[in-house]
Design brief:
This protein is 3% helix and 34% strand. It has a 7-stranded antiparallel β-sheet. The longest helix is centred in the last third of the chain and has 9 residues. The protein starts with 20 loop residues before the first strand and ends in a 22-residue tail after the last helix. It has 2 helices and 28 strands. It has 2 domains: 260 residues, Sandwich (Jelly Rolls), CATH 2.60.120.10; 140 residues, Jelly Rolls (Sandwich), CATH 2.60.120.10. It is mainly beta. Strand 17 and strand 18 form a beta hairpin.
Length: 445
């Protein structure tokens, strides 16, 4: 059972009086909460400063190319091997990869916002899987979850061995206490926690809801800019990593782990967030989506949505992603003689969409913040009747899309909704009706 929410003051790590951040995507950062805690000139000296233990944390293979290699050295009060034995935990609503007992219809699907339960649930208790694809054991594909949380993680900590976690708060601010330090994240921002990194989630505004993409594949990276040149899209400088802040509490704690699709728990006599200093490039980070430099047409036609890609996890096929994380942020639309919403299309890539706040221009009705939609491989989709009529007959002038933030997870693999998602009362049984009225307008002349 999750603990109730508190002010988090009793569990505040040393070095965390105020939240500072380190700037840059994929940089080899270094940080120490105590001066002199980082060894100089080497990673694993015979004796570390302050009696700390050196521990290497690798989220790519040792032999990955230097440009893709991700690892961080921790200098911690106790090594991670100091823990009890893991025992399985029941989790009926958490799924991983394709499931033989679940259907995968080609129908277009859409859900209303998922209700946050009244019962006490922390971030892990509140995880429910909406859809997944691929195979976590083969390190391909993604899991798509919602977290529906009412309480903070005070004595429980979590890491995911199946993939890195992309968190998108939709209701309520969250604070992530990680092995590298602390990140605050609010609706409109994202946070990414590397595969295997330990953390806990504190709710700052009471009950909280958000989306989670569990990436089984290659770590998320910035997409190439191509002919755009050296600037635009998401800029490296706007990605923020935490500074070192260690938690030296002792007591009755539990470490939860997601491994090969199952949850496990092990007892701990101390907080596992006891890293006093660290150096490396496999670190958690946050990004404010409102800083995305959106590029759009200044002549005619709606560009492919890939022009709004923030992060991508590549597959073994160039240009075909394991998952692309795409957003539809505030922006100007100035296209001439153009149907401005996204066009009707069928796509080999499968598309899962969520809405953080505001209105999505292609679905002004029925698609609400906290809800979701799934348009699978080759399933036709596009603007609803209201959007079509409005965009077909409006007077074209420069238009500013304000106070909106939708996102899309686009994957080369078909996305399988879970039985929970297919049986949820939030599933809109009449979604297909939004295209009623798109009858023949053919005149023959």
């Amino acid at each position: 059972m999750a603990n109730s929410i508190n002010t988090d003051a009793a569990a505040r790590p040393r070095g965390a009086a105020s939240l500072d951040y380190l700037s840059g995507f994929g940089n080899e950062h270094s940080s120490e909460a105590l001066e002199g805690a980082l060894p100089i000139g080497q990673f694993s000296p015979q004796r570390c400063p302050y009696g700390l233990y050196a521990e290497k944390f690798s989220t790519t293979a040792f032999t990955a190319p230097r440009s893709a290699n991700r690892r961080t050295w921790f200098y911690r009060i106790r090594p991670s091997v100091v823990q009890g034995e893991f025992e399985p935990l029941e989790s009926n609503l958490l799924r991983t990869g394709y499931a033989a007992d679940a259907a995968m219809p080609p129908n277009q699907l859409r859900w209303d916002p998922f209700a946050i339960p009244e019962a006490p649930r922390d971030f892990v208790d509140g995880l429910v899987t909406l859809a997944a694809n691929g195979d976590a054991l083969a390190q391909v594909g993604i899991g798509i979850h919602m977290y529906l949380a009412t309480s903070s993680m005070e004595s429980r900590f979590f890491y995911c061995a199946d993939g890195e976690l992309l968190l998108l708060p939709q209701q309520g601010r969250i604070r992530l206490h990680t092995e590298c330090g602390i990140l605050d994240c609010e609706p409109g921002e994202i946070a990414v926690v590397p595969r295997g990194m330990k953390f806990r989630v504190v709710l700052r505004d009471g009950a909280s809801r958000g989306y989670v993409c569990e990436n089984y594949g290659a770590p998320l990276q910035l997409p190439e800019r191509g002919p755009v040149g050296s600037d635009g899209y998401a800029n490296d400088r706007d990605f923020l990593a935490p500074v070192a802040a260690f938690d030296e509490r002792e007591g009755d704690f539990h470490l939860l782990c997601k491994f090969a699709g199952r949850l496990y728990a092990a007892p701990l006599s101390h907080s596992p967030l006891d890293v006093v200093a660290w150096v490396g490039n496999s670190v958690p980070y946050k990004y404010d989506l409102r800083r995305f430099n959106a590029l759009n047409t200044v002549s005619y036609d709606h560009p492919d949505p890939s022009i709004f890609t923030v992060l991508t996890s590549p597959s073994d096929t160039p240009g075909t992603a394991n998952v692309d994380f795409v957003i539809f942020p505030p922006r100007w639309m100035v296209a001439e003689n153009t149907f401005r919403p996204p066009w009707y299309h069928r796509n080999v890539m499968s598309e899962f969409m969520g809405l953080l706040y505001g209105v999505y221009d292609a679905k002004p009705g029925g698609f609400s913040a906290g809800g979701a939609s799934l348009h699978n491989c080759m399933s036709a989709h596009g603007p609803d009747l209201e959007a079509f009529e409005g965009a077909s007959h409006c007077e074209l002038a420069p238009e500013r899309y304000e106070d909106t933030m939708a996102f899309m997870l686009e994957s080369r693999y078909m996305i399988q909704p879970t039985p929970f998602a297919m049986q949820a009362h939030e599933l809109q049984q009449d979604y297909l009706r939004c295209w009623d009225g798109l009858t023949s307008r053919f005149s023959g002349s």
